């Protein structure tokens, strides 16, 4: 495929009303009206990237807010041709689990503890750590690769992943082989932000082409060397290398 495009969901009720998670399951959290508008606007931006006649395969998290975002993307970009535009839900790109209904006071304490313990490693009570989600996105990449490489399946020009902020960051961490330190410096994409990976003709790998839209630490956009795949980056990060070996041997 020419491109892999990651899109975060639009603004949800949980983004503007943190205590909503105490009564609304995370998987059922809907978009706000602003979020629906953002999704339609993102669809128009996606249409500017996808050329006329190009095919698109949408992978989407099965959460309410991501499914509603996909609806807005299709509406805003007119991606409703069943011959060109396919969709598949994948639970492996769902949001990090924070432990069922979330008590606002307790979750604030957990967030503080996570900052001290390490954002990648901290596991929420009855929930997941970033490392757990990393394992899931490794599984998802296996699914994506099989769709891309299987000669018995239809080929698509574009693969669009509609998911969640942390999930998208971990997906890029896995593909570009970021260190844990670098991952923790990358900020979440804004609601309905598009992170676009395009295929390099010379080597066949993908490069992030809009690093200016990715905030890195306090210094600004994502450095160029983190926008490309590096075969030796895991060697510079023993922890990441170990995670990759475990995930690859057990899941792929």
TrEMBL record:
CDD domains to which the protein is assigned, alphabetical: HP_PGM_like (cd07067)
Entry-linked SUPFAM superfamilies: Phosphoglycerate mutase-like
InterPro entries (alphabetical): His_Pase_superF_clade-1 (IPR013078), His_PPase_superfam (IPR029033), PGM-Related (IPR052765)
Superkingdom: Eukaryota
Name under which the protein is recorded: Phosphoglycerate mutase
Species this chain originates from: Polarella glacialis
